[in-house]
Specification:
113 residues; 3-stranded antiparallel sheet; 3 helices; 5 strands; 37% helix; signal; Carbohydrate-binding module family 19 domain-containing protein
């Protein structure tokens, strides 16, 4: 096979694989967005002295927090990031991570919530 033909095949394969795929929304997608919004609202009312259950994770201010002995222990996110609840994409539920406010809002908006 000639070099030009091989290059053409590789180029067309790259174009095909770069085409976006329409993935239907799973039945849990909207609920994940609603749950993430509700958690973020709950987190807005928390502070380091808020009561909590051992093993519970949350956001306190812009920090990630874990409950130990009935108190939140906070861990700051990197500069420019905030702690937020995010909707999971492939399964029901949410996660808590350090991200930007814009990313948080975009992820929730994609769920339709």
């Amino acid at each position: 096979m000639k070099f030009a033909a091989v290059v053409a095949m590789i180029a067309s394969a790259a174009v095909v694989s770069a085409t976006p795929v329409n993935v239907p929304r799973a039945g849990f997608t909207l609920q994940n967005g609603i749950d993430a919004k509700n958690l973020n609202q709950k987190f807005a009312s928390l502070n380091a002295n808020s009561p909590c259950t051992s093993g519970e994770n949350a956001c306190v201010g812009t920090d990630f927090a874990q409950c130990a002995n009935g108190r939140f222990v906070t861990f700051p996110c990197n500069t420019g990031l905030i702690c937020a609840a995010l909707p999971l994409v492939l399964s029901p539920g949410t996660s808590i991570a350090c991200t930007t406010a814009a990313d948080r809002d975009a992820r929730i908006a994609r769920t339709g919530a």
